[in-house]
Known about the structure:
- This protein is α+β, with helices and mostly antiparallel strands.
- The protein has helices at about 20-35, 45-50, 55-65, 80-85, 90-100, 130-150, 165-175, 190-195, 195-205, 210-220, 245-260, 275-280, 305-320, 365-380, 390-405, 410-435, 440-445, and strands at about 110-115, 125-130, 180-185, 225, 230-235, 285-295, 295-300, 330-335, 340, 345-350, 360-365, 455, 460.
- It contains 17 helices and 13 strands.
- Helix 3 (about 55-65) packs across helix 5 (about 90-100).
- The strands form four sheets. The protein has a four-stranded mixed β-sheet, with no helix packed on it. It has a four-stranded antiparallel β-sheet with strand order 6-7-3-8, with helices on both faces.
- It has three domains: about 20-155 and about 190-245, no CATH class; about 255-365, no CATH class; about 365-465, no CATH class.
Amino acid sequence: MPEDAPPNGGALLEVAPVGPRQRVSEMQAKLHRWAAADRGRRFDDLFNLVHDPATLIAAFDRVAGNRGAGTAGVDGLTAADVEEALGVPGFLNDLRGRLKTGAFRPLPVREKRIPKPGGSGKVRRLGIPTVADRVVQAALKLVLEPIFEADFKPVSYGFRPKRRAQDAIAEIHFYGTCGYRWVLDADIAACFDEIDHVALMDRVRKRVKDKRVLALVKAFLKAGLMSEFGEVQETLTGTPQGGILSPLLANIALSVLDEHLHRAWESGGELSNSSRRWRRRAKGLPSWRLVRYADDFVVMVDGTRQDTEALREEVAQVLAPMGLRLSPAKTQVVHLSEGFDFLGFRIQWRRKRGTDKWYVYTFIAERPLRALKAKIRSMTHRTSQQDLAVVLFNLNRATQGWARYFRHAVAKHVFRKVDHLVWWRLVRLLCTRNRWNWRDVRRRLTTPTGRWLSITAGRSELRKISAIPVTRYRYRGSKIPNPWVPETA
């Protein structure tokens, strides 16, 4: 980070060698600082930063550390194969040489269809690039992300550093509490598949002047797709899900929506302070607030249903030049008292039990709970022959991660129900496997005083998610830290 930079001037200090990660961090901090200082600046000579050895080393570390590192592209190589068979230094030197000479060409991505969560039966198409392509995409992202982050608006949270889904939920909760009770709950149909390449490249050119970088970005967009049947198809639109660069490119494309709806919130705008918003409401005019996470977004409206419907048409017109359209099946106008689902949460304005006061509550939606229960049942089939320690490890990994995501919702009762389901599924598995009856269960899983014991196997122990504290996630607003700006005391 910038605080690790060597001393300025002619200080007579022995400067320690700068590692690749620190060099990349300093480079990113400078790019971000320059981009933020001059909103109209177009950056040239970025290509040298992309193929810089430090950038490529940092990029390979990211690729090798990703969950998909063990998945091969069309060439059949994984990150582990590169490390073991080719060696990382030789692989990166060859890749750098091809980039410098212009010989590098991205290969088609390998199509992989995975079921969408929730048991709807629909599938999501992923495009898996080769390891070399992933490294170059990661290097491009390291260089381009700090530049475009200077332009991105605070209302978008998906695939951005230091931002998370809980921030988007907290913002919805905050504005719902402030009277924004009508909601445009929107979804963009096949967003990653339908982004118009020409419109996207035009937005990239607003900040990037280097023709070699632009050509590289375009080459990845046009790389093609190899289907599961081995057929290579052209990619005329879209940026494939699964590519490291794709989320950044999607945010660049969708920033057209952020800029349009957030313009009124900028300094001097008609929604820029509370008094101006109050005067608009006094005149019967609406106020609105966009909250976007990747291609899912909501527009909170302090107004009427008609105001919200008008915003829906306006949003559709803004997205059309990017080749995007709203999904008719998933886009709806609802009142907050009806509730709506967003990022796995159920958000609803309702009366507090036993009082006449109304509050905005955040619950766990039905779909992620149903998906977790299905996963638990698949792991604990009573005829399963899998080692109990492995079953406990997999259960803990699935339930603990799920609970930590939802621990800021009204979740305590749901957590206890999940623990109850897991315990009974394991007990039935053990009864079938060991031919126990209920007396055997009591004898083996309770103390002499009758207190129930945790289910264990070797060093593995079933961990209850109800032990995870449920806390309020505080709305951070404009206080979300920027990774390239040192925090002031």
